[in-house]
Amino acid sequence: MRRIIITIDGHSSTGKSTVAKQLAAELGYIYIDSGAMYRSVTLYAKDNELLKGKSLDKGALLEALPEIEIDFVWEHGLKKTILNGKDVSEHIRRMEISESVSQIATLPEVRAKMVDLQRSFGTKGGVVMDGRDIGSIVFPSAELKIFMTASAAVRAQRRHSELLASGQQVSFEAVLDNLQSRDEMDSKRSVSPLIIPEGAIVIDNSEMNPHDQFNMILQLAKDRIFGRV
């Protein structure tokens, strides 16, 4: 059985990470959360006072890039994001990080470092990676490319529910505004904009239940693994 590379790109809060984790677990593949990598750099910038509000000390951040080490580990069945030896899995999901991550992700030097790291994870195949430029930039020759989307209102409702469940008090309107702003920044940035990768299968899950979606993507993966496509 050959081990392929599967990329899952798409808009924020479409469930990319959830289905990517499930798929990796089902296939026995490595799961890489590229979004967590950019969030980790954003957290580093904030914790080191390089990013205050919308004011970024770009020079200082780029000078610090070689010191930023990001890795993923599995512990008790859960994936943890490690930033310079510290578990930051929960910290990088805070709303303040969501509001700033696109600003960091537009920096060419940051993207270059992250892309190099992401490619190093996929050298032997057997990888599921989700993000916004995985099928277009990181692994343009991936055997299976998925692009997930849904209406902004549906995505905002999902994200709002997640934040409330984690104890963060934020309005639906603030979440919707954040998603729409990120969509615009991601699609219009000059470096690695959010696009539908060539050859990707587009899935609009606005009205699709997670079970059916997962089975559809799993079947697509198996077709490619066993050479049926």
Would you give an account of this structure?
With 229 residues, this protein is of the alpha/beta class. It has a single domain (5-222), classed as Rossmann fold. Helix content is 47%, strand content 19%. The chain has ten helices and ten strands. It has helices spanning 16-27, 34-47, 58-64, 95-98, 101-105, 108-121, 134-138, 152-165, 172-188, 210-225; strands spanning 5-10, 30-33, 51-52, 55-56, 70-75, 78-83, 86-87, 127-131, 144-149, 201-204. Strands 2-8-1-9-10 form a five-stranded parallel sheet. A three-stranded antiparallel sheet has the order 5-6-7, covered by helices on one side. A hairpin with a 2-residue loop joins strand 6 and strand 7 (86-87). Helix 1 packs across helix 10 (210-225), helix 2 (34-47) packs across helix 6 (108-121) and helix 8 packs across helix 9 (172-188). The longest helix has 17 residues, at 172-188. The mean pLDDT is 92.
Q: Under the CATH scheme, which architecture would be assigned?
A: 3-Layer(aba) Sandwich
Q: Characterize the overall form.
A: globular
Distance between the termini: 15 Å
**Overall pLDDT confidence:** 92
The helix/strand series, from N terminus to C terminus, equals EHEHEEHEEEHHHEHEHHEH
Low-pLDDT ranges:
none
Query: Biggest β-sheet, characterized?
Result: 5 strands, parallel
Strand arrangement within the widest β-sheet reads 2-8-1-9-10
Number of DSSP E strands: 10
Q: What's the CATH class label?
A: Alpha Beta
Percent strand equals 15-25%
CATH superfamily: P-loop containing nucleotide triphosphate hydrolases
* Helical content (DSSP H or I, runs of 4+): 40-55%
Whole-number tally of structural domains: 1
Tell me the Rg in angstroms: 17 Å
Structural class: alpha/beta
